[in-house]
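I'm stuck. Protein, please.
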Amino acid sequence: MPKTRKKTSYDQLYNQAPLTEPLDRFKISVQAVLMALDATNQFSKKQSAKLHRLSTDWKDIGSEIRSWQGYASHTAQELQKANNDSNASGGFIPNEQELKELRDNIEQAYKEYLEHDRELNQDDPNFQQLFTLTLPMYFIYLIAIWDAFILDTAKQILSVHPHLITTSNKIPEVSRAALWNCETLDEVRNCLLDAEMQRLDTDRNNLINTFKDYWGIDWQDSGIGLPLIAELRARRDIWVHNQGKVNRRYLEMLVKSNSQTLLKVGKTATIDVSYLETAIITLTILSVHIHSQAHLKHYSSKQ
């Protein structure tokens, strides 16, 4: 991921909102993803370059052995004649017995070379390919960070306006055991908040509508369309549950959100550096917008 783009498109986005919790935690977590991604990418490039140099040196050794094979394939008379024709003086010319020993040694050396060469080709890791295989892991963690930010924001809004729970027709379901273990009123309130978060987390569309209809925060005012967010979550789901293979559940999620895709069932929903970079920028823009509106409409009343 280009460092210049990270600086201009990522860090400066946070200038548009107060850097308080939970946005501050979101930024730190995403920065950790960026740093790990960049370090892994740089490591794979360095190791690939080192492996390329070793491979080149190894091939040079093979070429050197083959050149000696060519030398030893001649007779002593042929070598002597070539030496005389080149006007060389003092050059050592082996006799037939020495040439035979040389041929045997070279043949054995080349045989061992080929055996090691096959082993090296089998064992050589493709570092760039390994780096690519880690990208879905970074993506899944990114979505987890995003989910945590959204739920932390919802919990903070509800903690500022507890009447949104106490006056709601849908009272959070809390087990008697959980309430029994609460020792203070604050613990009871946190228990109710956690239960409400679990309810909202099970229905993402309802969560989005709650932000808009009850808290006055329309995600789409950020410039990020809901179909794009739906696609990010759908792609996360198939990587977690289906090894990245598109299934009908993935397509259904996109249809419900009016998102479009050219992918078909059974195809892999690729996650490359470009896609991951776009996801990071997209979720950062949306997070900053949500936090800015929450701070303006709700958090300020707590201060």
Observations:
- The radius of gyration is 33 Å.
- Confidence is low (pLDDT under 50) at residues 1-5.
